[in-house]
Amino acid sequence: MLALRPFCECCATPLPGDSRDALICSFECTFCRDCSEQTLKGRCPNCGGELVARPARVGDALSRNPASTERIVKAQGCTQH
Prior knowledge:
Layout: E1 22-24, E2 30-32, H1 33-39, E3 52-53, H2 59-64
Antiparallel strand pairs: 1-2, 1-3
Pfam families: DUF1272
Protein name: DUF1272 domain-containing protein
InterPro entries: DUF1272 (IPR010696)
């Protein structure tokens, strides 16, 4: 099951479990749409993998399986690829 990390790793924008603006790589690194498109150009700065839309978890599924509370944010932010 996806961890649904709650924040963009670059800018700390909140990304709740039902967010349509969260993008992830195959390792579940998580970024907001703005950082992914403007700064990262669709590539994960950690592994170089493709960033794709994270599936949203909604309704009962989200209440039974809430998003992670673990905050992973790069202190230095992200650099452009």
